[in-house]
Each structure stands twice: as structure tokens, then as C-alpha cells.
């Protein structure tokens, strides 16, 4: 049976320009009837979903985490299953869902039809997949250029972090969770919904994208050398074991700061403090690999 799909590819994603034709060929071979829209701006994503959503069975998005973040609100309105073609630099949502980075293999995942209901994060009216954060990560986002991401890939995040670390200053905030207040002085607060962010760093050891919880960490460093243990612990999600990292878990979180700070959601600056966060359980259906088949390969 032919499946109707809207295929939107961010041509300015790290692998977007080269992968569009490859994705079209692979999906045509898998018996998809495609409406293909090369995307030049984030605004076009939402417009295309609203225009073509009522006429298709599936929405397929090719791009990185920022592209997916741009379309998440309109995807939620249409309530259509999402197919992901990971074409970005970090591809953290694809990593969380075990979606292969190969375009033909990612297309096969969509064609197999196995879906998973995932949670979404929400902050001040904006939905996100992976993580929302303030402080150091915002400085990195503002400094990181598209050219650096295309040239260096995931390494661009590390290079940029080293550049901004010396200029980043701590800020005061009050975190409210489960009826308790936590005053902090920190260089970064992150609130995670998924498992991975920032090119494969783990939000928390036990974090999953369908656990109906948000995982918060606050980096309350007092000396510059404390950054080095973080480099070893973040990939495994063990940063919570360090005494200068505060970790909290819950369904709703409030964060207030003395002055308004920008908030980064999945790599895009979309909100600011004061902020209210909540998890939206089982909000969106996403195509994922068939675990049983993968185990026998």
C-alpha cells in the first residue's frame, strides 16, 4: 500500500544539500508517495506542515536537532507520526531513539512502521525534544557558527566551549521543584527531556524520552579546574556524582533569575526567564527501529 508523506529537508543542515536526492530515491523505492519541500527557513517548516499535513499520513523531516525543534509545535497540532532523517551535526534526538545516521537505513526505519510515543518538554509555551538550558550553553549557541559546524562537526561544540569558558560568569537563580526552593549560584542550568544533547552528552544516567520526567542539573563550579572532571563524566551521565553538580528530577520545574536570561531549546534560543517547565507525556509518535529485528541482525 502506497504511503503518503510530506518530506521536508533543511538544505542548510550539515548534510542537507547532498542528502535530499538520496532520501527521495530511497523513499520512492520504499513505496512512498512524496510531497517534497526543500526548506530555506524555519518559518517554512511550520507553514508546510499546516499546508500539507491534512493530505498525508506521515511527516518526514531531514535536518538536525534545531530543525526538529523548529517544527515540533506544528507537528503536535497535526498529530501525525514523525519520521527523522538525521542530517545535522549532533543528531541527539536520533541518537536517543537509536535511529541510524545512514539515510537509506533511516528511510527503512520509517517504512517499517514501528512507532514510539515520546514525551516532550515544554517551557513558557515552547515545546522541545532534548534539553532546555541557560548560561554557558547559551553563550556557546551564540558563538557557534554554521561554518564551524559544517567544517568540524561535533568537535565544533568543544572548540567553541573552550573559547567561551573563560568569559562565562556565574549567575544566581532560584529553582522550585516539588514544593521546595533551591537557591543556586551556577554557570549553567539544563532541564532535559530526552537522553542525549550537545553531540552525545548524557542528560542523566537514568533519563529516557518516555519516562514522564524532567532531569535538571546545575553546574555550581567554584574553581576552573572543576570543568575537567565534567569532560569525563558527561558522556556517561555520571556528572551527578560530582559534589559541585546539583541534580533534580520532577514533572514541573520553575526557575527565576535576578535578570532575564535567554533559554536555549535543542540548540535554538526560543525563551527566557522567569521560566516554567513541564513534561508532556506521550505527546508525539515517532518512527523508531524495530528492536526485535535489530537484535537478530
Automatic annotation (TrEMBL):
Gene3D superfamilies: 2.60.200.40, Probable inorganic polyphosphate/atp-NAD kinase, domain 1. GO terms for molecular function: ATP binding; kinase activity. Belongs to the diacylglycerol/lipid kinase family. This is Diacylglycerol kinase catalytic region. Pfam families: DAGK_cat, YegS_C. Its cofactor is Mg(2+). SUPFAM superfamilies: NAD kinase/diacylglycerol kinase-like (SSF111331). It comes from the Bacteria. Keywords: ATP-binding, Kinase, Lipid biosynthesis, Lipid metabolism, Nucleotide-binding, Phospholipid biosynthesis, Phospholipid metabolism, Transferase. GO terms for biological process: phospholipid biosynthetic process. InterPro entries: ATP-NAD_kinase_N, Diacylglycerol/lipid_kinase, Diacylglycerol_kinase_cat_dom, Lipid_Phosphate_FormReg, NAD/diacylglycerol_kinase_sf, YegS/DAGK_C. Residues 1-127 form the DAGKc domain.
Amino acid at each position: 500500500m502506497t504511503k503518503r508523506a510530506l518530506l521536508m529537508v533543511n538544505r542548510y543542515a550539515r548534510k542537507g544539500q547532498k542528502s535530499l536526492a538520496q532520501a527521495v530515491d530511497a523513499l520512492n523505492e520504499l513505496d512512498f508517495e512524496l510531497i517534497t519541500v526543500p526548506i530555506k527557513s524555519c518559518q517554512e517548516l511550520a507553514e508546510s506542515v499546516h499546508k500539507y499535513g491534512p493530505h498525508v499520513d506521515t511527516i518526514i523531516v531531514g535536518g538536525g536537532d534545531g530543525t526538529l525543534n523548529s517544527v515540533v509545535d506544528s507537528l503536535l497540532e497535526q498529530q501525525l507520526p514523525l519520521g527523522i532523517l538525521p542530517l545535522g551535526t549532533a543528531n541527539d534526538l536520533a541518537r536517543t531513539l537509536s535511529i541510524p545516521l545512514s539515510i537509506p537505513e533511516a528511510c527503512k526505519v520509517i517504512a517499517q512502521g514501528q512507532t514510539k510515543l515520546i514525551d516532550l518538554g515544554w517551557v513558557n509555551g515552547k515545546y522541545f525534544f532534548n534539553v532546555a538550558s541557560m548560561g554557558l550553553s547559551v553563550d556557546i549557541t551564540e558563538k557557534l557558527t554554521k561554518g564551524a559546524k559544517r567544517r568540524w562537526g561535533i568537535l565544533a561544540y568543544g572548540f567553541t566551549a573552550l573559547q567561551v569558558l573563560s568569559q562565562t560568569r556565574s549567575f544566581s537563580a532560584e529553582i522550585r521543584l516539588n514544593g521546595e526552593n533551591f537557591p543556586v549560584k551556577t554557570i549553567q542550568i539544563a532541564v532535559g527531556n530526552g537522553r542525549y544533547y550537545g553531540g552525545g552528552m548524557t542528560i542523566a544516567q537514568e533519563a529516557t524520552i518516555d519516562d514522564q520526567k524532567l532531569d535538571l542539573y546545575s553546574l555550581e563550579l567554584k574553581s576552573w579546574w572543576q570543568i575537567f572532571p565534567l569532560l569525563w563524566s558527561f558522556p556517561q551521565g555520571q556528572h551527578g556524582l560530582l559534589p559541585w553538580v546539583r541534580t533534580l528530577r520532577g514533572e514541573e520545574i520553575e526557575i527565576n533569575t535576578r535578570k532575564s536570561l535567554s533559554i536555549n531549546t535543542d540548540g535554538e534560543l526560543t525563551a527566557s526567564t522567569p521560566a516554567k517547565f513541564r513534561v508532556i507525556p506521550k505527546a508525539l509518535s515517532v518512527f523508531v527501529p524495530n528492536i526485535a529485528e535489530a537484535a537478530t541482525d
